[in-house]
Amino acid sequence: MQISATNDEQTVISTFEMTPGTCTDVLEALQDAYDKVIRHQPGFRGAAIHVNDAQTRISTYSRWRDRADFQAMLRTPEMRERNRAIAAQCARFEPVMYEVAATYMAE
């Protein structure tokens, strides 16, 4: 996945906070959502899921053609149901939209 500040794509970084006991369940729910629903939506470009060492936070990074495509995916009945189930397992769930301001690569 090439990250560039020169394109018009929408970046969404979502954070999920949970207990270590529910981390695996949330991770599996997210993987299932990306595999079966999200990656098939119009405008989806790519994503990654990250889990911290303590298994108390999961972050997802996804790229979309534009903001409207991401918002349309969230409004589908299946994703509304999935997001409610995921949020019920989390102390906090926050998706935030970003634009790439700068990128850096190793020399």
What does this structure look like?
One of its GO terms (molecular function) is monooxygenase activity. It is a single chain. The protein has helices at 20-36, 67-75, 77-88, and strands spanning 10-17, 44-51, 57-64, 92-98. The chain is an alpha+beta fold and 107 residues long. It has a single domain (10-98), classed as Alpha-Beta Plaits (2-Layer Sandwich). The longest helix is centred in the N-terminal third of the chain and has 17 residues, at 20-36. The radius of gyration is 14 Å and the shape is globular.
The global form is globular
Gap between N and C termini, in Å? 18 Å
Instruction: Output mean pLDDT.
Output: 93
**Rg computed from alpha carbons, rounded to a whole number of angstroms:** 14 Å
Q: Would you identify the regions where 5 or more consecutive residues have pLDDT less than 50? A: none
Give the helix proportion (percent range): 25-40%
| Major sheet size, sense and barrel closure | 4 strands, antiparallel
How many helical stretches?
Answer: 3
Number of strands: 4
* Percentage of residues in DSSP E strands: 25-35%
CATH class (first level) name: Alpha Beta
Q: How many domains, as an integer?
A: 1
- Helix and strand content put the structural class at alpha+beta
Q: Give the CATH topology.
A: Alpha-Beta Plaits
Strand arrangement across the biggest beta sheet: 2-3-1-4
Order of helices and strands: EHEEHHE
The CATH architecture can be named as 2-Layer Sandwich
